[in-house]
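seq as requested:
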Amino acid sequence: MSNVPNHPPPTYEESQLIGTNDPYYPNIPSEFAEGGKVGESSLEIRMANRYLLGLFTFMTSLTIGIVSVQYELDVVLQALILAIALFVSLTLFTFQSKYDFSKLGPILFFALLGVIFVGLINIFIPFGSTFRLVIAVVSVIIFCGFILFDTYMIINHLYPDQYIDACISLYLDFINLFLNLLRILGNSDN
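C-alpha coordinates:
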Protein backbone atom coordinates (compact mmCIF):
# COMPACT_ATOMS: atom_id res chain seq x y z
CA MET A 1 0.00 0.00 0.00
CA SER A 2 1.34 3.40 -0.94
CA ASN A 3 1.37 6.66 1.04
CA VAL A 4 -0.23 8.60 -1.81
CA PRO A 5 -3.68 9.97 -0.89
CA ASN A 6 -6.75 8.61 -2.72
CA HIS A 7 -8.11 12.04 -3.66
CA PRO A 8 -7.08 13.96 -6.78
CA PRO A 9 -4.69 16.89 -6.42
CA PRO A 10 -6.36 20.24 -5.76
CA THR A 11 -7.16 22.66 -8.55
CA TYR A 12 -5.06 25.79 -9.02
CA GLU A 13 -7.55 27.90 -7.04
CA GLU A 14 -7.63 25.38 -4.22
CA SER A 15 -3.86 25.14 -4.15
CA GLN A 16 -3.65 28.91 -3.59
CA LEU A 17 -5.79 28.47 -0.49
CA ILE A 18 -3.84 25.57 1.01
CA GLY A 19 -0.39 26.59 -0.15
CA THR A 20 0.80 23.97 -2.62
CA ASN A 21 -0.59 21.38 -5.01
CA ASP A 22 1.89 18.71 -3.92
CA PRO A 23 -0.20 15.73 -2.69
CA TYR A 24 2.50 14.73 -0.21
CA TYR A 25 2.50 18.15 1.52
CA PRO A 26 -1.00 19.56 1.06
CA ASN A 27 -0.98 21.96 4.00
CA ILE A 28 2.52 23.40 3.73
CA PRO A 29 2.85 26.78 1.99
CA SER A 30 4.95 26.53 -1.14
CA GLU A 31 7.53 29.00 0.26
CA PHE A 32 8.38 26.55 3.03
CA ALA A 33 8.13 23.43 0.88
CA GLU A 34 10.70 24.90 -1.52
CA GLY A 35 13.40 25.51 1.05
CA GLY A 36 12.44 28.47 3.21
CA LYS A 37 12.64 31.49 0.94
CA VAL A 38 10.46 33.43 3.37
CA GLY A 39 13.05 33.34 6.14
CA GLU A 40 15.84 34.39 3.82
CA SER A 41 13.97 37.37 2.41
CA SER A 42 12.53 38.56 5.73
CA LEU A 43 15.99 39.50 7.01
CA GLU A 44 16.47 41.83 4.04
CA ILE A 45 13.02 43.32 4.59
CA ARG A 46 13.74 43.93 8.29
CA MET A 47 16.99 45.71 7.48
CA ALA A 48 15.26 47.84 4.84
CA ASN A 49 12.54 48.70 7.36
CA ARG A 50 15.16 49.86 9.85
CA TYR A 51 16.77 52.12 7.28
CA LEU A 52 13.39 53.50 6.22
CA LEU A 53 12.50 54.16 9.87
CA GLY A 54 15.77 56.05 10.29
CA LEU A 55 15.11 58.09 7.15
CA PHE A 56 11.54 58.82 8.26
CA THR A 57 12.75 59.92 11.70
CA PHE A 58 15.41 62.15 10.17
CA MET A 59 12.97 63.84 7.76
CA THR A 60 10.41 64.35 10.51
CA SER A 61 13.03 65.87 12.80
CA LEU A 62 13.99 68.35 10.08
CA THR A 63 10.36 69.36 9.67
CA ILE A 64 9.87 69.75 13.41
CA GLY A 65 13.06 71.77 13.64
CA ILE A 66 11.77 74.18 11.00
CA VAL A 67 8.43 74.53 12.82
CA SER A 68 10.10 74.96 16.22
CA VAL A 69 12.32 77.80 15.00
CA GLN A 70 9.20 79.93 14.52
CA TYR A 71 8.51 79.90 18.29
CA GLU A 72 10.38 81.34 21.26
CA LEU A 73 12.81 78.96 22.95
CA ASP A 74 10.95 78.95 26.27
CA VAL A 75 7.69 78.04 24.50
CA VAL A 76 9.40 75.13 22.71
CA LEU A 77 10.92 73.87 25.97
CA GLN A 78 7.59 74.16 27.80
CA ALA A 79 5.84 72.24 25.04
CA LEU A 80 8.56 69.58 25.03
CA ILE A 81 8.51 69.11 28.81
CA LEU A 82 4.72 69.00 28.86
CA ALA A 83 4.64 66.50 25.97
CA ILE A 84 7.20 64.26 27.70
CA ALA A 85 5.28 64.44 30.99
CA LEU A 86 1.97 63.59 29.30
CA PHE A 87 3.52 60.80 27.24
CA VAL A 88 5.25 59.14 30.20
CA SER A 89 2.18 59.54 32.45
CA LEU A 90 -0.21 58.07 29.89
CA THR A 91 2.17 55.22 29.08
CA LEU A 92 2.60 54.33 32.76
CA PHE A 93 -1.15 54.58 33.27
CA THR A 94 -1.71 52.16 30.38
CA PHE A 95 0.81 49.69 31.81
CA GLN A 96 -0.90 49.77 35.23
CA SER A 97 -4.48 49.95 33.99
CA LYS A 98 -6.86 47.07 33.52
CA TYR A 99 -8.99 49.01 31.04
CA ASP A 100 -9.41 47.79 27.48
CA PHE A 101 -8.31 50.74 25.36
CA SER A 102 -8.73 48.86 22.08
CA LYS A 103 -12.29 50.18 21.82
CA LEU A 104 -10.92 53.72 21.49
CA GLY A 105 -9.47 53.00 18.03
CA PRO A 106 -12.50 53.77 15.84
CA ILE A 107 -13.52 56.77 17.95
CA LEU A 108 -10.04 58.28 17.74
CA PHE A 109 -9.79 57.54 14.03
CA PHE A 110 -13.02 59.37 13.19
CA ALA A 111 -12.17 62.24 15.55
CA LEU A 112 -8.83 62.62 13.78
CA LEU A 113 -10.56 62.56 10.40
CA GLY A 114 -12.83 65.35 11.65
CA VAL A 115 -9.84 67.46 12.73
CA ILE A 116 -8.14 66.85 9.36
CA PHE A 117 -11.34 67.82 7.54
CA VAL A 118 -11.65 71.04 9.55
CA GLY A 119 -7.97 71.74 8.83
CA LEU A 120 -8.57 71.37 5.10
CA ILE A 121 -11.53 73.74 5.30
CA ASN A 122 -9.30 76.17 7.22
CA ILE A 123 -7.00 76.34 4.19
CA PHE A 124 -9.78 77.78 2.02
CA ILE A 125 -11.87 79.57 4.66
CA PRO A 126 -9.53 80.88 7.38
CA PHE A 127 -10.90 80.63 10.90
CA GLY A 128 -10.00 82.91 13.77
CA SER A 129 -7.20 82.24 16.22
CA THR A 130 -9.67 81.19 18.93
CA PHE A 131 -11.09 78.45 16.72
CA ARG A 132 -7.58 77.25 15.82
CA LEU A 133 -6.79 77.14 19.55
CA VAL A 134 -9.88 74.99 20.14
CA ILE A 135 -8.80 72.65 17.33
CA ALA A 136 -5.33 72.37 18.91
CA VAL A 137 -6.86 71.51 22.31
CA VAL A 138 -9.11 68.88 20.70
CA SER A 139 -6.06 67.51 18.86
CA VAL A 140 -4.13 67.21 22.14
CA ILE A 141 -7.02 65.21 23.62
CA ILE A 142 -7.15 62.99 20.51
CA PHE A 143 -3.42 62.27 20.58
CA CYS A 144 -3.50 61.57 24.31
CA GLY A 145 -6.14 58.99 23.42
CA PHE A 146 -3.91 57.63 20.67
CA ILE A 147 -1.05 57.24 23.16
CA LEU A 148 -3.34 55.18 25.40
CA PHE A 149 -4.63 53.15 22.44
CA ASP A 150 -1.27 52.50 20.79
CA THR A 151 0.46 51.61 24.05
CA TYR A 152 -2.34 49.19 24.89
CA MET A 153 -2.13 47.62 21.44
CA ILE A 154 1.65 47.27 21.73
CA ILE A 155 1.40 45.62 25.14
CA ASN A 156 -1.44 43.24 24.29
CA HIS A 157 -1.60 42.68 20.54
CA LEU A 158 1.72 43.24 18.77
CA TYR A 159 4.42 40.63 18.40
CA PRO A 160 8.06 41.45 19.22
CA ASP A 161 9.01 41.47 15.54
CA GLN A 162 6.52 44.30 14.92
CA TYR A 163 8.68 46.80 16.79
CA ILE A 164 8.93 49.14 13.78
CA ASP A 165 5.15 49.52 13.68
CA ALA A 166 5.18 50.20 17.40
CA CYS A 167 7.96 52.78 17.08
CA ILE A 168 6.20 54.65 14.30
CA SER A 169 2.86 54.67 16.14
CA LEU A 170 4.25 56.07 19.37
CA TYR A 171 6.63 58.42 17.56
CA LEU A 172 3.78 59.96 15.56
CA ASP A 173 1.63 60.24 18.68
CA PHE A 174 4.39 62.08 20.53
CA ILE A 175 5.24 64.37 17.61
CA ASN A 176 1.61 65.37 17.05
CA LEU A 177 1.10 65.90 20.78
CA PHE A 178 4.21 68.11 20.88
CA LEU A 179 3.17 70.14 17.82
CA ASN A 180 -0.32 70.78 19.15
CA LEU A 181 1.02 71.76 22.58
CA LEU A 182 3.42 74.08 20.78
CA ARG A 183 0.45 75.63 18.96
CA ILE A 184 -1.46 76.10 22.21
CA LEU A 185 1.46 77.59 24.15
CA GLY A 186 2.56 79.71 21.19
CA ASN A 187 -0.97 81.03 20.75
CA SER A 188 -1.26 81.88 24.44
CA ASP A 189 1.87 84.06 24.17
CA ASN A 190 0.25 86.07 21.39
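The mean pLDDT is 82.
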